């Protein structure tokens, strides 16, 4: 620790450096000259105040900058530790998401563009498999300056996330309740889905039945299922829930709601094959909007969050490191399919 303080003091004569820059560069110099190694503890903030006479805010700012770059890490109640001896590294970001569907690609493109060229981004897919998720988190911990994660709603997820520094984690897409105060940019499913169904009530009631395709124990949000069940109960709507769509089974007089694009494409294919009039003979509602749903068959009705905005806000968090808690609104887009 004394060597770190000495390295910082040697920079006091460099007029071009502010006090917080002296601390940052001094720590980097101590690492480069092998005075400290990966895993070594740095002086506490109080120790630095005592030795340097700098303001607490100055020292905290310097430590936060080094944490943000991934050079050091903060361990809750233990202090600051050297995370890597590679002081020349760019900020490295780990992005952990479900898969690379169209809407997640939209998120990724806006996130990547928002980060700029100077930030390294590595992407991992857990496919809603908790064992895969667990393996990814254990493999990436301590290796990145920021962790942007779409968490799996699982009882063990909060404990798994605790392996990562709270102030370097951003939850995206899904929100999970934890004891830790994580930043997040997510969508809300229960209330927004219910409100979307209610706005479509008059159109839905023109049909004999609404069919919802929902796979249990999948990546599909259970909150949407709960909202659907509440909606049909509140408004006395004839409904049925099925695991999946069987090609060729499309029937007149029904509204079909699916979260999966492949099922939607199969139903649209059958609509054409059977000569049905979309919005009159059958109706479709889809979750998560994209440009194809705007164009195909003169448009498919959707309710969806803005994944481009989610990606942009996530990039802002990575670059600033400032706490963020955002629920991106869900928007109903009514088109000719209903």
Outline of the structure:
With 338 residues, the chain is of the alpha/beta class. The protein is 39% helix and 20% strand. It has helices at residues 2-9, 19-32, 45-52, 56-68, 102-115, 130-140, 157-161, 190-199, 201-204, 222-234, 261-274, 291-295, 307-320; strands spanning 72-75, 79-82, 92-97, 120-125, 146-149, 169-173, 183-187, 209-213, 239-242, 254-258, 282-287, 301-305, 325-328, 330-333.
What do these coordinates show?
With 338 residues, the chain is α/β, with parallel strands linked by helices. The protein has 3 domains: 2-82, Winged helix-like DNA-binding domain superfamily/Winged helix DNA-binding domain (Arc Repressor Mutant, subunit A); 92-187 and 307-328, Response regulator (Rossmann fold), CATH 3.40.50; 190-305, Rossmann fold (3-Layer(aba) Sandwich). It has 13 helices and 14 strands. α1 (2-9) crosses α2 (19-32), α5 runs parallel beside α13 (307-320) and α8 runs parallel beside α10 (222-234).
Number of strands: 14
Strand arrangement within the widest β-sheet reads 4-3-5-6-7-13
Low-pLDDT segments, ≥5 res: none
Q: Roughly how many Å is the radius of gyration?
A: 25 Å
Shape call: elongated
Biggest pleated sheet: 6 strands, parallel
Spell the H/E element sequence: HHHHEEEHEHEHEEHHEHEEHEHEHEE
Strand fraction band? 15-25%
Keywords: DNA-binding, Transcription, Transcription regulation
Protein name: GntR family transcriptional regulator
InterPro entries: Peripla_BP_I, Tscrpt_reg_HTH_GntR, WH-like_DNA-bd_sf, WH_DNA-bd_sf
Organism: Galbibacter pacificus
